[in-house]
Design brief:
two-stranded antiparallel ribbon; Rossmann fold; 2 domains; six-stranded mixed beta sheet; 26% helix
Length: 300
């Protein structure tokens, strides 16, 4: 059984956390104690119904303010596929957290409030997902119940987004009208939108072909940590910068026994802004804790 990683994105209050909560609830992927905790919190806040968004908004500040701040990961499975969900924040000041959640996604769900249409943040998140080379995109037009499930409004938003997406490198784009609050077209097809002939969101996620999406040819090195020696007395290490991460892909790599080796390129390479960069060295003792302590990377 393969795994699909997907992230939610979109503007503030477009229903990202509610959608994930509804998806988990209707697919019966919530433990009873989790549901009881959410129901109790909803009652304490004076809400008339269970707020499914609380299933992903786990930080105290998130629950108090009713917003998503950090990336929340949830895991669930159906008989067809396993899923890893990244629920990302919509506020512009937390855009970097959205990038973190979408950076490993196979698919991104861009939510749009049907009443407001596309916003600046909706476009920003869509652009960032294409910049991250997320291969599949779903535009989920949410809160269809608040506009009377109007087909014309849905089609207007789809046309507007299609014109915007034409400027981006979108490989696969799907449009789905939903109501995350009521569950329309989330797990099951909605009887309130007979004019929509496409699949429900879960059906689309279960049947999406992702086997050919992974790039196993080009080498990629996502920088996860910048190493700077702070307490070293060696003057040669004053300007030292090491970049730590996990190499992905197989290009320029060969095998020596069971361990992969990567060649260091010494020639300059010009970037898109006209600057130059040089990979000077690859420390041979990168995995040696004693050597890393000498460079000031680990505490003694």
């Amino acid at each position: 059984m393969d795994i699909l990683r997907f992230a939610t994105a979109g503007s503030v209050d477009d229903g990202k956390s509610t959608l994930i909560g509804r998806l988990l609830y209707d697919s019966k992927a919530i433990f009873e104690d989790q549901l009881q905790s959410v129901e109790r919190t909803s009652r304490d806040r004076g809400e008339e119904s269970t707020n499914l968004a609380l299933l992903t908004d786990g930080l105290r500040a998130e629950r108090e303010q009713g917003i998503t701040i950090d990336v929340a990961y949830r895991y669930f499975a159906t008989p067809r596929r396993k899923f890893i969900i990244a629920d990302t924040p919509g506020h512009i000041q937390y855009t970097r957290n959205m990038v973190t959640g979408a950076s490993t996604a196979d698919l991104a769900i861009i939510l749009v409030d049907a009443r407001n249409g596309l916003t600046e943040q909706s476009r920003r998140h869509a652009f960032l997902t294409t910049l991250l080379r997320v291969p599949h995109l779903v535009l989920a037009v949410n809160k269809m119940d608040l506009i009377g499930f109007d087909q014309q409004v849905f089609e207007q938003i789809c046309d507007e987004f299609s014109k915007f997406a034409a400027k981006l490198e979108v490989q696969d784009l799907t449009f789905i009208p939903i109501s995350a609050l009521l569950g329309d077209n989330v797990v099951d097809r909605s009887a309130n939108m007979p004019w929509y002939e496409g699949p429900s969101l879960l059906h689309h996620l279960e049947h999406l072909h992702i086997a050919s999406d992974r790039n196993l040819i080009d080498v990629r090195f996502p920088v996860q940590y910048v190493i700077r020696p702070h307490a070293s007395s060696d003057p040669e290490l004053h300007d030292y910068r090491g970049y730590a991460g996990q190499v992905a892909g197989r290009a320029q790599a060969r095998r020596r026994g069971d361990a992969p080796a990567v060649r260091v390129q010494h020639q300059d390479q010009a970037d898109r802004h006209g600057g130059h960069s040089r990979r000077r060295s690859l420390p041979a003792d990168v995995g040696d804790p004693a050597a890393r302590r000498r460079r000031g990377h680990l505490p003694r």
